[in-house]
């Protein structure tokens, strides 16, 4: 099955869902554990019927869901279809979504030697030096954020080598950036907006606010 472009995903009008780094994400405010359990049970039945299964996190006040077609390495129509079905279930059970609560963190390491650094970071973060996929260190158990390697020329001058990528819903990026600036930060580079904007804290430590927009 073909993966969908960002435009195709946005045109699907999934009001409860947002594409972050790689997948569709949603949070549903269930209010208590038993309501969440009933919701997850219904979602599980829909997933079994579709033969396509989301990642689910059940907590006391909310349920987080993530949809991606791993066999296609991206979001496909079956993810969109199941997202709609899950939203229907939420509405039937009187459960509201909270897209403004969504965020995803990735770490980026600036390096001229990704092949050398990769096994170390994979072993440190995941327990196995084999968990390197291209320029990414991935934890198959989902316990730690993704680490990716940003290629650069070798250099001796001390500089920040690790920064955070903070993925937020595309329609909330300006709000998040404004909040960070109001809290003492500054915009370093917005030339790649709306794809990402580089911010710095008062001491110069940098992070990128990232969205799914304007990406290949």
UniProtKB/TrEMBL annotation:
Q: Where does the record place the Glyoxalase-like domain?
A: 107-210
- State which Enzyme Commission number(s) the record gives: 4.2.1.96
Is Ribosomal protein among the key words of this record? no
Give the stretches traversing the membrane: none
Q: Which keywords accompany this UniProt record?
A: Lyase
The lineage's top-level taxon is Bacteria
Annotated Gene Ontology MF terms? 4-alpha-hydroxytetrahydrobiopterin dehydratase activity
Q: Which reaction does it catalyse?
A: (4aS,6R)-4a-hydroxy-L-erythro-5,6,7,8-tetrahydrobiopterin = (6R)-L-erythro-6,7-dihydrobiopterin + H2O
Which EC class is the enzyme in? lyase
Q: Which SUPFAM superfamilies match?
A: Glyoxalase/Bleomycin resistance protein/Dihydroxybiphenyl dioxygenase (SSF54593), PCD-like (SSF55248)
Instruction: List, in alphabetical order, the GO biological process terms annotated in this UniProt record.
Output: tetrahydrobiopterin biosynthetic process
Q: Extract the CDD domains matched here.
A: PCD_DCoH
Q: Which family does it belong to?
A: Belongs to the pterin-4-alpha-carbinolamine dehydratase family.
Write down what this protein is called: Putative pterin-4-alpha-carbinolamine dehydratase
């Amino acid at each position: 099955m073909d993966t969908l472009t960002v435009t195709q995903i946005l045109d699907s009008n999934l009001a409860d869902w947002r594409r972050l780094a790689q997948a569709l994400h949603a949070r549903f405010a269930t209010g208590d554990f038993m309501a969440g359990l009933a919701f997850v049970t219904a979602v599980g039945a829909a997933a079994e019927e579709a033969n396509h299964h989301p990642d689910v996190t059940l907590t006391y006040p909310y349920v987080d869901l993530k949809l991606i077609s791993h066999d296609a390495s991206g979001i496909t129509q079956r993810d969109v279809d199941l997202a709609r079905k899950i939203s229907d279930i939420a509405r039937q059970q009187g459960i509201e979504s909270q897209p403004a609560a969504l965020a995803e963190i990735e770490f980026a390491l600036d390096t001229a030697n990704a092949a050398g650094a990769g096994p170390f970071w994979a072993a440190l973060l995941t327990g196995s030096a084999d968990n390197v996929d291209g320029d990414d260190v991935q934890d198959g158990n989902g316990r730690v954020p993704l680490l990716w390697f940003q290629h650069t020329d070798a250099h001796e001058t001390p500089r920040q080598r690790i920064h955070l990528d903070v993925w937020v819903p595309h329609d909330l990026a300006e709000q998040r950036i404004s909040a960070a600036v109001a809290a003492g930060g500054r915009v370093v580079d917005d030339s790649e907006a709306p794809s990402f904007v580089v911010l710095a804290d008062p001491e110069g430590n940098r992070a990128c606010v990232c969205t799914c927009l304007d990406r290949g």
